[in-house]
């Protein structure tokens, strides 16, 4: 059984060498360059890439973490990981200084459960139009994701941002009229009318020699 990834204190190393060259040197040393910002200051840091992976796997990436920055304790929140567009390996990381109870903004991923009735019975297709919502609330309670049950969603129906339940103490920053999930009929399904089916059947009969071809119009 694999050992759980637990982070007690996150070690962040202050960086004196900044800029593109400093970031490259940090990566060559097996570390990910980054910054800790907030409360009126910004500190360039580097984090061991394995420790960053442990942080992500621990499930604590959306929670306040106790960190040691050059031996000085601080409370931080992981805010952004920039990844390589092809390899998806981390290139840089941002942390924000926070306090318990402090209100912060966060972009939270949308997760859907169930299969819409408009898909199973109506021939529609579900489209997740908006993949995350901007919310604001206590830093220690930021959810990993927001879940939507789409089982009752019919064709030509949708879920708006304002219809998604938020945890206690959080407010929605995304415009409330934003469409998050919708179910619509595809263009191919719309074009598949009885007239189309009749024309297709007639063409098949002509091809099989079961019906005469329509006469060509006189020139």
Series of H and E elements: EHEEHEEEEHEEEEEEHH
Strand content: 35-45%
The number of domains is 2
Low-pLDDT parts are none
The neighbouring-strand order within the major sheet is: 1-3-2-6-5-4
Q: How many beta-strand segments? A: 13
CATH topology of the largest domain: Ribosomal Protein L25, Chain P
Would you mind describing this structure in some detail?
The protein is of the alpha+beta class. The chain folds into two domains: 10-98, Ribosomal Protein L25, Chain P; 106-191, RNA Polymerase Alpha Subunit, Chain A, domain 2. Helices cover 19% and strands 40% of the residues. It contains five helices and 13 strands. The strands form three sheets. Strands 1-3-2-6-5-4 form a six-stranded mixed beta barrel. Strands 10-7-9-12 form a four-stranded mixed β-sheet, with no helix packed on it. The radius of gyration is 27 Å and the shape is elongated.
Short description:
The protein has 219 residues and is an alpha+beta fold. The protein has helices at residues 19-28, 49-57, 117-120, 187-191, 194-207; strands at residues 10-14, 31-38, 41-48, 65-69, 72-83, 90-97, 103-113, 124-128, 132-138, 145-149, 157-160, 171-172, 179-185. Strand 2 and strand 3 form a beta hairpin.
